[in-house]
Amino acid sequence: MPLLDHASLGLEEAYILGYNVERLRRQRGMDVSTFARVAGITRPTVYKMERGEADPKLSYVRKVADALGVSVVDLLTPPPEVLDPSFYQRACAVRAQERKDRAGKRSR
């Protein structure tokens, strides 16, 4: 049975993916533009993925994993600090406030 190329990520999985992508990208000393070029995806896609706002195709997740030198499973596995529910709740609150702030700037 072939693997699906697209399956929707839940909010928590999207956040974990974004957290891991940003963390690993920074560990490797890459800015977003460089990373996007290496991974073969667009900068806006990287930004959305890192903010947990993207619902990327599996092919994109594979490209990202390859560019970071990790597996897809590694990208979707929460690091120990994310396993603390309060960490996730705080992070979601920060992301929600960022979205609200951006929406307010657009409406001006």
Essential attributes:
globular; 108 residues; mainly alpha
Describe what this molecule looks like in 3D:
- This protein is an all-alpha fold and 108 residues long.
- Helices cover 66% and strands 0% of the residues.
- The chain has six helices and no strands.
- The radius of gyration is 14 Å and the shape is globular.
- It starts with 10 loop residues before the first helix and ends with a helix.
Can you summarize this structure?
This protein has 108 residues and is mainly α. The protein is built from six helices and no strands.
Overall pLDDT, averaged? 83
The total count of helices amounts to: 6
Instruction: Give the helix/strand class.
Output: mainly alpha
Give unreliable regions as ranges. Answer: 1-6
Helix share bin: 55-70%
What is the rounded distance between the termini?
51 Å
What is the fold's blueprint, element by element?
Elements: H1 11-27, H2 32-39, H3 43-50, H4 58-68, H5 72-76, H6 85-106
